[in-house]
Design a protein that fits this description.
This protein is α+β, with helices and mostly antiparallel strands. About 50% of the residues lie in helices and about 10% in strands. The chain has 3 domains: about 120 residues, no CATH class; about 90 residues, no CATH class; about 90 residues, no CATH class. The chain starts with a helix and ends with a helix.
Length: about 325
């Protein structure tokens, strides 16, 4: 599938997320966005959160500077850099620069992001089907809802109806010509009262069946495409921490419990593989270069060990690489 089509889907999903959250917690910044407000919102998100390296790369690429908590004054002067994001949210422009769209995704907390991650998480089989349908006259890239499907079906039905009307007219003309020829040939042998030739439609049953089959195929393909896009992008894009690992869950799953670790989160492939592990004195804590390969996080009951870095799923504290001091203090020999 060509990247332009994927970018269209990415942009559409972010705009829908924007409409969803603009009246929420960030109402002041997003309801009537300006470059100055978006500049402030960006700083708040990066200053108050442990941002992923992908987000830091977008920050660097779009703004031309690395995020530095001590450079707030300098950053506040860069409001013009947020003008393309402002116009994108307002629907005034369709940005060609993907970094602009990625920054918009950060500001509304859309996942999966950035675009390269969004592209990689789409099922290749789904891409192939979308590409095939895209090359047919019945495909419309805007299909993502029941109303869009209805528009497509109505248009196709209108095209089919026009084709059938044209065929019926041609059939009437042919029947009329045949009747006149037959009458002329019989005039020499017998006298036939003059009358009005009434054309007879034939083959209407076959045309009707063809119409039903063709219409059904178009409707089925349209509905299938809409359902496929829904499940590919939205239905299974969440995860939940379960004891010592993450599990994929429906985003509609109701959370039963009081702990924050029960929360249903947007699916993040870079976090999904994080696991809580049990360690002992024979566990390999360091690689051959002496770098830690096991990480830890403190809890109210002691300490937990993990197979990678990130944040503790149960208390959101940042994980740290193990040290000799931590091992001597907490790992039984």
């Amino acid at each position: 599938m060509n990247n332009n089509t994927l970018e269209d889907l990415y942009k559409k999903a972010i705009k829908e997320k924007y409409e969803e959250v603009k009246n929420g917690d960030d109402f002041y910044f997003l309801n009537a966005p300006t470059r100055g407000k978006l500049n402030k919102l960006c700083w708040e998100k990066f200053a108050n959160n442990d941002m992923h390296s992908n987000d830091l790369n977008v920050f660097n690429s779009l703004l031309g500077l690395s995020f530095d908590i001590s450079s707030k004054k300098k950053f506040k002067q860069e409001t013009d850099l947020f003008r393309p994001v402002e116009k994108f949210f307002k629907g005034e422009t369709d940005p060609d620069k993907i970094d602009v769209v990625d920054m918009a995704a950060i500001l509304v907390d859309f996942n999966p992001r950035p675009f390269n991650k969004f592209r990689k998480e789409i099922d290749p089989e789904n891409l192939k089907l979308i590409e095939e349908l895209r090359n047919t006259k019945h495909y419309k890239p805007e299909i993502s809802s029941a109303s869009s499907i209805d528009e497509l079906e109505n248009e196709n039905f209108s095209d089919l109806k026009n084709e059938e009307t044209e065929k019926a007219k041609n059939e009437e003309v042919k029947q009329g010509e045949a009747a006149l020829i037959e009458k002329d040939e019989n005039l020499d042998s017998e006298t036939i009262p003059l009358g009005i030739v009434t054309p007879v439609k034939i083959g209407t049953e076959g045309i009707g069946k063809f119409r039903i089959i063709k219409y059904s195929v178009v409707a089925a393909v349209s509905a299938g495409l809409a359902i496929m896009i829904y499940f590919a992008f939205f239905q299974k894009q969440c995860m939940q921490w379960s004891s010592d690992h993450y599990e994929k869950v429906s985003c509609d799953l109701e959370v039963n419990g009081l702990g924050s670790f029960n929360v249903v989160e947007p699916f993040d492939k870079t976090v999904f593989d994080l696991k809580k592990i049990k360690v002992c004195d024979t566990t390999a804590f360091f690689n051959t270069n002496g770098e830690a390969v096991v990480w830890y996080g403190k809890t109210a009951n002691g300490i937990d060990f993990f197979n990678g870095h990130g944040r503790h799923p149960e208390n959101n504290s940042p994980l740290k690489p193990v040290t000799r001091y931590i091992l001597n203090k907490y790992v039984k020999k």
